[in-house]
Automatic annotation (TrEMBL):
It holds the Pfam family Lipase_GDSL_2. It comes from Marivivens donghaensis. It comes from the Bacteria. GO terms for molecular function: hydrolase activity. Keywords: Hydrolase. Transmembrane segments: none annotated. This is SGNH/GDSL hydrolase family protein. The keyword Ligase does not apply. The keyword Hydrolase applies.
Length: 211
């Protein structure tokens, strides 16, 4: 029975579009894209959802905590759930927050760090080998209740697909541009509506099946 670990942030966790900053909601199973993906792949697949709202590729968040650094969580997740057969990584949205001052190249460097962990000889041997799919998130829109946090993030996000694609090819990882399938919600410019989750889940299932 193949095991797939979906590693990401609030859009992997299933956070709906926010109308204020104190909401802590979640789309239900059957709507969240990882669960839609699993349904499409078939019952023989085991899904491990590992989405943490606020997670970045490599940045410790001064407001939300050092544990938002994705390199910390990835090591824990991979050691906790071994062996897996497929790892998806969809991160970079939170890296575009103005407070990090990260360039698109620096954000891509964060993905490179995650690939370095996942595709290391040590980690691959622990799992008996697993495949990696890098998913570039759709760019944010600077609007809604959290627009000040993501000031300038739209311009950074627009440059990420080409950079992620080139990096993935260099590492021998699979790549998918989520922005070719969905857009972020007009409500907060960051999170996905329910129908977008369903669309993305179907698209990721196809990309995984093609590995």
């Amino acid at each position: 029975m193949p095991v797939i670990l979906t590693y990401g942030d609030s859009n992997t966790h299933g956070t709906p579009p926010m109308t204020n900053r104190i909401e802590h909601l979640r789309h239900p199973a059957g709507t969240r894209w990882p669960t839609v993906m699993q349904e499409k792949l078939g019952d023989d697949w085991t899904l491990i959802e590992e989405g943490l709202p606020g997670r970045t590729t490599i940045f410790a968040d001064p407001l939300m905590g050092a544990h938002m650094d994705g390199t910390l969580g990835l090591r824990i997740a991979l050691d906790s759930h071994k062996p897996i057969d497929v790892l998806t990584i969809m991160l970079g949205t939170n890296d575009t927050k103005a407070m990090f001052g990260a360039t698109p190249e620096a954000i891509t460097g964060g993905i490179a760090a995650l690939l370095g962990i996942a595709m290391s000889l040590e980690m691959q041997e622990k799992h008996g080998g697993f495949k990696v799919l890098i998913i570039c998130p759709p760019p944010v829109k600077v609007q809604g209740a959290i627009k000040d946090v993501f000031y300038g993030g739209d311009k950074k996000g627009a440059e990420l697909p080409a950079l992620y694609a080139d990096l993935s090819a260099h590492w021998g990882a699979a790549f998918m541009d989520a922005g070719q399938h969905i857009e972020v919600s007009e409500v907060d410019g960051v999170h996905f509506e329910a129908d977008a989750h369903v669309t993305l889940g179907k698209a990721v299932a196809k990309a995984v099946a093609d590995l």
